[in-house]
Amino acid sequence: MRVLRNSAALKAADCLSAQRYLAASARNARNARLNISPRPSAQRLTSATGIRCFASSTSRPNMESYLAKEPAAPEFKTASFPGPVSEKAIAELDAVFDTRSLNTICDYKKSYGNYLVDLDGNVLLDVYAQIASIPLGYNNPALREVAQSEEMVNYIINRPALGNFPSGDYAELLKTGILSVAPPGLNQVFTAMAGSDANETAYKAAFMYYRRRERGEGAEFTAEENESAMRNAAPGSPDLAIVSFKRGFHGRLFGSLSTTRSKPIHKLDIPSFNWPQAEFPQLKYPLEEHVEENRKEEQRCLDNFEETIKNWHCPVVAAVIEPIQSEGGDNHATPFFFQGLRDLTKKHNMLLIVDEVQTGVGATGKFWAHEHWNLSSPPDIVTFSKKAQTAGYYFGNPELRPTKAYRQFNTWMGDPSKALLFKTIVSEIKKNNLVEHTAEVGAYLYSALESLAKKYPDQIHNLRGKNQGTFIAWDSPRRDEFLKVAKTVGLNVGGSGEAAIRLRPMLIFQKKHADLLIEKVEEIFKKW
Amino acid sequence: MRVLRNSAALKAADCLSAQRYLAASARNARNARLNISPRPSAQRLTSATGIRCFASSTSRPNMESYLAKEPAAPEFKTASFPGPVSEKAIAELDAVFDTRSLNTICDYKKSYGNYLVDLDGNVLLDVYAQIASIPLGYNNPALREVAQSEEMVNYIINRPALGNFPSGDYAELLKTGILSVAPPGLNQVFTAMAGSDANETAYKAAFMYYRRRERGEGAEFTAEENESAMRNAAPGSPDLAIVSFKRGFHGRLFGSLSTTRSKPIHKLDIPSFNWPQAEFPQLKYPLEEHVEENRKEEQRCLDNFEETIKNWHCPVVAAVIEPIQSEGGDNHATPFFFQGLRDLTKKHNMLLIVDEVQTGVGATGKFWAHEHWNLSSPPDIVTFSKKAQTAGYYFGNPELRPTKAYRQFNTWMGDPSKALLFKTIVSEIKKNNLVEHTAEVGAYLYSALESLAKKYPDQIHNLRGKNQGTFIAWDSPRRDEFLKVAKTVGLNVGGSGEAAIRLRPMLIFQKKHADLLIEKVEEIFKKW
């Protein structure tokens, strides 16, 4: 498919897709869980700019007028990157805060929608979005409105210790926000602060659950357990493990880092638990052209998983896995693999923890990426963070609440101000059908990248993420150079693993942005 | 000293103390680090209520008018605790969120100043303050103002990945906020989210620093290190330890929990690192009456510390310690012990990490509790959270920045919205001399508790916290019962360790609140 860049053609294409979109919306309206009830109204499909056609058409001037004020295109102004104003500010920051991982020093007040503005005024189309953590664009008016609300002010200035002193409205806040998008089958939540502690508290829940079953219901802790736990020794502090997968990433604190297998730089010099890793499938792309050999590879990995956990020196109580390995290089597996993994964890009385920190909240064209899998039973635990702007883990089995109070506890246990922000994000996602929108725009973008890959076969290898929304990546033989040059054509884009360029646009990414992205990527290829 | 409760006497006493306070303020004005410049003005000392006399008297209508609107006294209205409205709300919350550690379900919109209001309208004088994490009272107007500011809105709706995409004003935000109160000798910060990850990232810095020195400057990681780290094995993932102290508390994630030694319930069933614990002094109170035997006990613990780290199975790279063991029971040690510990860590090339998560930000009558110690050299790392409303660790040695980028990193690396909140907290603390104020009110409260202890020697054991601001505690033979009954007289108070009642009032706690507290405590004793 040829990418349309001419504006008239673009309008036509967009509004054609908008019609398909409406049909999809109508189907989605039956999705009671998300409570979507679009009322199609054709005359509202074309906005003033002609190319912003949201799926359902209940009155939502905010989103349309918001995007109408976006810059028309990226604009790279400085002779080099970073420019002189940025250079100076970076040096100033570096005196007090390590800046060696600094990518761009930003002016967030000027950033808008899909566009990130740096201190020198360079305007970058942002398809990295704060490491996949901005859901609705910079300076989103709905978020602005809630940030200025009395609710938000109250939560900010009166931050509670939620486990001891929750506010009377916390149940309502959870139910109308975080829990309104709980993955199917899961109806409870433990709230946390970021991806790492979401995963670690999930691991703790898994360990306590394992020992609960081993100990027998109602059994009290023994004196020996109490005493030995204080010495970090068994049986109170037992030798138990979480299995993760090669190239997986689950965070950087001590427990989560022990399950992270992305790169040595993440792990070097830090003591870790002697926990196992299983093979993650290394599939051939495009997946649909390598069905049989990929199936074999996935079966090999399932066999390896079972061998690994059966032969480990201690009980392996849970497996943790990302739906798409993100930091590790955008590695995909098919539903066959995840179904097999679910079944193996059931067979061996293990928990399945799905780490949706990066994949969750809509970017894959489902609210949760694991909804693509059709598992025989839901994951036991699903963790979230990033685009949620808060964090935690969902679960369904009430026995995953530990046997006693204060076993899973900390002072803040989350943050109502962030829970309110997520509630608003959820509301905007639903109101604007942004999950379906992202599925649609993702398909459009993937298709355009397929065409580009045919034109530049030396530059785009292993294009992946088909039918995974905008969660798209490819391998580049000049990846690090690509990421740098991208800035000079007005793109902010990130990498993952050894060679991948990963796209992580926001949920408000439109087909026109996809066209711009393709144009800019081609501009880079043409320079080479 | 007899507690003054008569209002006329109280006014006189308060304003006498206010004069002493002014003198202290003038001295403090010379403290250039805190940039304090009070302009005494006697006629402003007595507010409309007659008993709120702030130390320095620059115009600060906000704080005075804020406190003037506080409830006059606690008010317990319901027949039982929790009352019927609370009971219903707790049941509703419990359906989705574990409430077994729930203490009070609150109405934060109605809470004010030092008073916490529950869902049934009970008005409690709050000397627990969200587990010591509320610095300036509920619905503080200065915090309200900043929460409504454009700065705050910007930070909330455009949350950056600080390590990659900091905003241009982050250096300024750090320098005028978090770093403006950096402990003497420390001038850099790594920002985090809560106490646990502040400590864990500090531990990671300590491990990387140890291996840097061991490896030799400029040495690259070997192939073997890179490969073994991915398997969680040495040498890439080395066997190294952090030593902590018996009864210490440093958090509940996997690394921090391995250093936590407070109670089995915090640790049971969770795998931990084989790290050592050293003896923490068990002193006799009041400290000034047991100088010699306490000195011996502290020397015994220093000797035990040295033995412990010398004989451990692997290198012990750092010691982590709280200035006052808080969760573990409000256990104190004297400057002699901490000076000795500093010297021993230097002698053995170890880092000293001071965990000021609970003691920091003014409550002990110094901004940082370790400023009471007069160490021979500053701690290497100081961690903070709670009353800072954000978290992280301070350090001074530039080599505590790891050798390469992305070694100490995560997506958010803190939160500018919380950094802005802390900046405002710091500004209010300085403007109102709240550290000195807390030292003064603490001395007053301690003295009143001493009198009460003489009157009720069976109820107040081991009163402690003299000259430690309001960071005061005592042991109670009926502790758990005391904490429950306290609610019914209108007090919200917390426990720590096995038998301690710990006071953690806010920095805006006044002498009149101290009087009320004493009155209510006595009311409980009189019931028994």
From TrEMBL, chains A, B:
Enzyme class: transferase
Cofactor(s) this protein requires: pyridoxal 5'-phosphate
Keywords in alphabetical order: Aminotransferase, Pyridoxal phosphate, Transferase
Keyword ATP-binding appears in the UniProt entry: no
InterPro entries noted in UniProt: 4NH2But_aminotransferase_euk (IPR004631), Aminotrans_3 (IPR005814), PyrdxlP-dep_Trfase (IPR015424), PyrdxlP-dep_Trfase_major (IPR015421), PyrdxlP-dep_Trfase_small (IPR015422)
GO molecular function: 4-aminobutyrate:2-oxoglutarate transaminase activity; pyridoxal phosphate binding
GO CC annotations, alphabetized: mitochondrion
EC number, UniProt record: 2.6.1.19
Catalytic activity: 4-aminobutanoate + 2-oxoglutarate = succinate semialdehyde + L-glutamate
The keyword Iron is assigned to this record: no
Identification of the protein by name: 4-aminobutyrate aminotransferase
Organism: Ascodesmis nigricans
Lineage summary: Eukaryota, Fungi, Dikarya, Ascomycota, Pezizomycotina
